[in-house]
């Protein structure tokens, strides 16, 4: 088991590195790098002085930006130019980046020169609790709703709830979040929850926590309602399927009530797909939930990475990809391990 | 403890539902920003939010007086005295205000201006844009008799240079270079420093000190002589600026408009989504909402409650919605073809559809109110019949399939239109052009692109027609950056140039006589209208919504759309 685990971890790390390296190399081939953006901003705003009108002057600016950011170096150990392969040794951008990352340095943002690690850490302070609580709440609700819907398949309540869940499943997140915002944080309708606003001045730690809890209510609700159908509907289908199997019939024949049969016997078998879906949510813990963060003005990692991508802030984008890829691969690993825990027949040694 | 949490939650809900908070004279003014400034490094201010923030922390020699819509002296005592030195140099004599001082009470001196200009040109710092922008200032001559007097020797002539010479934040020498090591290096030497050569020891040490100061996030490490200090910054959420209790300009009588700083506290809330920002305004979480999109502005105006609570302002900005033609394409080389296509745009209809009819139509690159505006030219209009006639004059023949062909051509007249994806106005304009063109038999393909990809595509000439904004200014008539032959491949995207327009473009900024300048500008507008490399459709409006109780609201067509530091709450405390 341990050997299997280390093997999977090593493979996960290897794949994450491969994905990130590809993104690193591809991102540097894209048009509109930070040097071009600097010139475009200047030119559009008319801030280029009379002496700097000529195209040559703009080239000077671009070159200077590239030199300062280390972008004048070749991207990789080998490059192809004029039909010829050229070897550059270790004097290339990828090598510098890889060595720095292996020493725990994710680089500095092009936009503000801040360490990428610090920027990500600050943003994750918001995204991790939000996404984790949403996942936890949605999982709990999905279990409760799944059991309820499986126990009373034909009841009016179950039909209504099923319809609602199906409706939620086809509603895009931005529409749902905007609807909640317009419904619950709007003086024209219900002005119940804060959507933006300031933390109370001179707030103590406790007040700040309460403030952020209030701020998190609507984003949390949006996320939970979006994830809920994805978790609940397959669980209901699985529970209903398990309820028709032989062991369930035996349990019922021995006098066990439907609810207990579902909870004690059917649920462990029906849980496996739910766990896989839940671990699929792990990358969102890192990459954030851009739509919700933009709409509710939360300073999370989704917004950070989306803005970095728009501004061609490569170090930040590449670090985001690395973390997301790691989270994704570790999520798959976690799903496997949970499956082994619940169903020992699936274990590698079995 | 549990009662604390319960109580706090209840109070939060109650406060959310209750009446808006009472605003007193000392209450903060809260402003919506659509994005975080990212960096407050005075050398690397790359977006409007960062520029607004820097103007609170630092003061330049000259600043915009939003009431007069003109540049006015800020740190400088008066506008500079202008002297011509030969054909190509201008000397600008400045004197700093005697009251101007840093937070420690030390006066702001000419040596600080000299240091700032050297910092703007120091190799190794994130100042590439500044070096291009202020590279025309060759030398700073200090007056040995008066430490507040100095002369800037500038390359070129004209009003542009005068304004640009005073448009940078002046920074304190004593903080970054207490030993005055940079005084021994001339500005010209720093400007000409070869990129391949290692920096001078004094420069290397300064660069190190600058980087250690982390001014991007810690502007307090370089306190400016502006009226505010940064009190708190939560990235992507909020910035809080507090007014200095003692600020040197408070002593000035009468207080110049550009040196007024009324709010005791300014809070910028970063709200990227427009709908969420509108709700925040309705909930009084935001007092000022600048650059309001047309749809939101209309929705707010339609609400009687909002009408009672907020004041609405709309006026023309200096950003022109423009369609441009790639004059290097064989099909678009003939000016009559370009003129024909210009008649397929409907500026009036587009203004009504995208800007509530508040777009200000224009004949050229100058606003209709300008004394240099060529009012003898007709406004561009939608006229498909004239387009058809002009296409025929240009040699195009309409075949039985309805398309236009040149004799011997292998394909009919068909165009692609490139524009930025995220702006609905561009998409609507492109769609209107496509529809009008289809009616006269021209196939138009719409190719929206992401902002930086679009810049690259336009600069490499991969387009037939583009739709974008040209950002103008009431202070500058320097159109050479996007029309002169020397900028083809960078700013000049259409690839258009003629010897006549090149001459006009270079003569206009340096012409000192107003009458001759008017003639030159009117001529340029007429030539551009005839050659039609680009078609200015209309000036976009800038819309502002503010809490009705705010006083001294000075809306402006210039960014950020209002005089930020002029705002204030009424002295007497009463509820909203």
Account of the protein in words:
- The complex is a heterodimer of chains A (350) and B (576).
- Chain A is mostly helical.
- Chain A has helices at residues 2-27, 34-44, 55-69, 93-102, 116-151, 156-169, 173-184, 205-243, 246-253, 258-280, 282-287, 290-295, 301-310, 314-342, and strands at residues 78-81, 84-87.
- Chain A has a domain at 122-346: MetI-like (MetI-like fold).
- Chain A is built from 14 helices and 2 strands.
- In chain A, helix 5 (116-151) runs parallel beside helix 14, helix 10 (258-280) packs antiparallel against helix 14 and helix 13 (301-310) packs across helix 14.
- Chain B is of the alpha+beta class and 576 residues long.
- Chain B has helices at residues 2-17, 48-57, 110-120, 128-133, 159-164, 173-176, 187-191, 201-213, 274-282, 294-302, 304-309, 335-342, 347-355, 384-393, 424-439, 451-459, 480-483, 499-510, 514-531, and strands at residues 29-33, 62-65, 70-73, 81-85, 89-95, 137-142, 149-155, 228-234, 238-243, 265-270, 288-290, 310-325, 360-361, 397-398, 404-405, 414-420, 443-449, 465-471, 534-547.
- In chain B, helix 12 (335-342) runs antiparallel to helix 14 (384-393) and helix 18 (499-510) runs antiparallel to helix 19 (514-531).
- Chain B is globular and about 80 Å long.
- Chains A and B meet through helix 2, helix 3, helix 5, helix 7 and helix 8 of A and helix 1, helix 4, helix 5, strand 10 and helix 9 of B.
């Amino acid at each position: 088991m341990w050997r299997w685990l280390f093997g999977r971890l090593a493979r996960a790390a290897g794949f994450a590195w491969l994905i990130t390296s590809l993104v690193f190399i591809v991102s540097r081939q894209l048009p509109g790098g930070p040097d071009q953006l600097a010139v475009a901003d200047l030119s559009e705003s008319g801030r280029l002085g009379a002496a700097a009108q000529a195209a040559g002057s703009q080239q000077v600016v671009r070159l200077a930006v590239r030199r300062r950011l280390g972008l004048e170096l070749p991207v990789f150990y080998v490059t192809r130019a004029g039909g010829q392969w050229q070897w550059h040794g270790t004097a290339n951008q990828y090598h510098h980046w890889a060595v720095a990352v292996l020493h725990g340095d994710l680089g500095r943002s092009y936009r503000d020169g801040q360490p990428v690690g610090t920027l990500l850490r600050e943003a994750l302070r918001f995204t991790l609790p939000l996404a984790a609580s949403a996942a936890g709440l949605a999982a709990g609700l999905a279990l409760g709703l799944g059991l309820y819907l499986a126990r009373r398949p034909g009841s009016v309540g179950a039909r209504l709830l099923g319809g609602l869940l199906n409706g939620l499943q086809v509603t895009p997140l931005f529409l749902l979040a905007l609807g909640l915002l317009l419904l619950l944080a709007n003086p024209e309708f219900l002005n119940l929850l804060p959507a933006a606003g300031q933390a109370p001045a001179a707030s103590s730690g406790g007040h700040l926590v309460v403030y952020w809890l209030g701020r998190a209510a609507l984003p949390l609700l949006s996320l939970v309602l979006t994830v809920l159908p994805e978790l609940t509907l397959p669980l209901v289908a699985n529970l209903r399927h398990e309820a028709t199997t032989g062991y369930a019939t035996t349990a019922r024949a021995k006098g066990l009530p439907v609810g207990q049969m579902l909870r004690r016997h059917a649920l462990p078998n029906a849980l496996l797909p739910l766990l896989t879906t839940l671990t699929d949510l792990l990358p969102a813990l890192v990459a954030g939930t851009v739509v919700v963060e933009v709409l509710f003005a939360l300073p999370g990692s989704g917004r950070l990475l989306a803005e970095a991508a728009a501004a061609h802030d490569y170090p930040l984008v590449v670090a985001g990809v690395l973390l997301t890829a790691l989270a994704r691969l570790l999520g798959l690993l976690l799903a496997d391990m949970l499956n082994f825990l619940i169903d020992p027949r699936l274990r590698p040694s079995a | 403890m549990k009662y604390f949490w319960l109580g706090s939650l209840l109070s939060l809900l109650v406060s959310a539902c209750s009446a808006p908070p009472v605003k007193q004279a000392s209450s903060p003014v809260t402003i919506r920003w659509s994005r975080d400034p990212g960096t407050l490094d005075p050398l690397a201010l790359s977006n409007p939010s960062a520029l607004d923030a820097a103007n609170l922390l630092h003061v330049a020699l000259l600043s915009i007086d939003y009431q007069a819509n003109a540049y006015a002296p800020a740190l400088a005592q008066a506008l500079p005295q202008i002297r011509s030195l030969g054909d190509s140099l201008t000397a600008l004599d400045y004197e700093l205000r005697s009251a101007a001082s840093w937070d420690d009470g030390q006066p702001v001196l000419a040596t600080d201006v000299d240091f700032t200009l050297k910092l703007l040109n120091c190799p190794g710092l994130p100042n590439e844009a500044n070096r291009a922008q202020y590279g025309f200032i060759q030398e700073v001559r200090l007056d040995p008799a008066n430490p507040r007097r100095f002369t800037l020797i500038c390359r070129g002539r004209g009003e542009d240079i005068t304004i640009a010479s005073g448009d940078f934040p002046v920074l304190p020498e004593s903080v970054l270079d207490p030993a005055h090591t940079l005084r021994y290096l001339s500005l010209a030497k720093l400007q000409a420093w070869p990129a391949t050569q290692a920096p001078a020891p004094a420069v290397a040490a300064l660069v190190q000190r600058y980087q250690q100061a982390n001014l991007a996030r810690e502007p307090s490490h370089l306190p400016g002589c502006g009226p505010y200090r940064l009190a708190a910054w939560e990235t992507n959420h909020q910035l809080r600026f507090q007014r200095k209790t003692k600020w040197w300009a408070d002593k000035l009588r009468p207080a110049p408009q550009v040196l007024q700083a009324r709010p005791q506290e300014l809070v910028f809330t970063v709200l990227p989504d427009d709908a969420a920002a509108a709700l925040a305004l309705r909930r009084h979480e935001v007092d000022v909402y600048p650059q309001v999109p047309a749809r939101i502005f209309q929705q707010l105006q339609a609400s009687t409650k909002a009408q009672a609570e907020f004041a609405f302002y709309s006026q023309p900005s200096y950003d022109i919605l423009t369609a441009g033609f790639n004059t290097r394409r064989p099909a678009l080389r003939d000016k009559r073809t370009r003129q024909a296509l210009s008649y397929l745009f409907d500026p009036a209809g587009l203004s009504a559809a995208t800007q509530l009819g508040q777009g200000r139509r224009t004949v050229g690159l100058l606003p209709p109110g300008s004394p240099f505006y060529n009012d003898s030219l007709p406004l561009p209009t939608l006229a498909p019949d004239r387009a058809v006639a002009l296409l025929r004059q240009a040699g195009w023949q309409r075949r039985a399939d309805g398309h236009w062909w040149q004799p011997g051509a292998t394909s009919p007249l068909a165009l692609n239109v490139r524009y930025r994806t995220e702006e609905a106005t561009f998409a609507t304009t492109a769609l209107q052009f496509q529809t009008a063109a289809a009616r006269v038999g021209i196939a138009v393909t719409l190719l929206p692109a992401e902002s930086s990809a679009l810049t690259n595509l336009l600069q490499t000439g991969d387009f037939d027609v583009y739709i974008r904004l040209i950002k103008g200014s009431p202070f500058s008539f320097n159109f050479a950056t996007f029309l002169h032959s020397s900028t083809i491949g960078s700013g000049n995207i259409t690839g258009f140039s003629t010897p006549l327009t090149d001459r006009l473009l270079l003569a206009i900024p340096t012409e000192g006589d107003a009458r001759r300048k008017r003639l030159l500008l009117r001529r340029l507008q007429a030539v551009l209208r005839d050659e039609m490399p680009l078609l200015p459709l209309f000036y976009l409006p800038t819309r502002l919504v503010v809490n009705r109780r705010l006083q001294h609201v000075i809306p402006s067509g210039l960014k950020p759309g209002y005089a930020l530091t002029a705002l204030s709450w009424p002295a007497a405390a009463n509820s909203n």
